[in-house]
Amino acid sequence: RNRLDEVQTIEDALKLLKTSKKILVITGAGISTSLGIPDFRSSQGFYNQLQHLGLSDPQEVFDLQLFLTDPSLFYSIAYMILPPEEIYSPLHSFIKLLQSRGKLLRNYTQNIDNLESYAGISSSKLIQCHGSFATATCITCKYQIKGEVIFDKIRNKEIPYCPKCTKTRNQLLRDDEEVYIAESFGVFKPDITFFGEPLPKTFHDMINEDLHECDLLISIGTSLKVAPVADIVDKVPPEVPQILINKDPIDHCNFDISLLGYCDDVASYLANELGEGWDLPHEKFNEI
Ligand code: OAD
User: Fold this and answer.
1) Which fold has domain 39-83+131-192?
2) Over 50: is that where the pLDDT of 284 sits?
3) What is the fold, at CATH topology level, of the domain defined by 1-37+88-130+199-288?
4) How large is the ipTM?
């Protein structure tokens, strides 16, 4: 993809924010780090915090096949990624602001913390591409429950079992003491998307239409390393400008404008420059 010659500067970014009407926003873990939630791949990130597990690849904690054979690995670390209290960052407010001004086509988030909802982004504008902790499903009988039902177990690093399948298990054992029942029989899995699992249906339902409707793409706080979300930037029509807001440059993508820095600061700067009608509810302005 060739860069668009006419958009390159921060002034161009401001102009685009003023004029665009259907903005597609892609977000990742970097939009929540200012709240004390680690991202995945930074030096202080979640994957580096898993070194004690001695895995060849820390992403294995989200491997579906591994979970289905032995859920204990996931449940030994799941407490570390439980969603926090109802808090959100200035960057979340910035996306809400785009929505309030009628400019947000859709926010495709890879985050499972659900903080976009707390910030007021409506469910019709939000695609949680990697699911969330809001619900959990039994891997055996597919019984679905509210996620918070198993939060205490997760905090205690215990494996949560489905009550229906526990009954079945007890019945089977009563009938035949020797019967083999797998460790993972009747285990609840939070409805977050593991590697090896398809993305939620809403992602596939919406993305093609949104790709052709959007008039600006903004990617914020994501390393764009995980497909298919990472592929969105390549699929947007070439005439649609693309803006990056990220702490680190993303070398494998070709953005028209890169605004490098802490995303809260970048959003506060933009809102400040845009002036009236662009007030961020909890603005934290630093010079960038
Ligand atoms: P990564 O950890 O891969 O990338 C986070 C990006 O945000 C990095 O490029 C950081 O430089 C940047 N960043 C961190 N703090 C920032 C800040 N305050 N302001 C601006 N930028 C900041 O996280 P994701 O791209 O979200 O999947 O990771 C994608 C997926 O990989 C996750 O959804 C997760 C993981 O495996 C699943 O859990 C299935």
Assistant:
1) SIR2/SIRT2 'Small Domain' (3.30.1600)
2) no
3) Rossmann fold (3.40.50)
4) 0.98
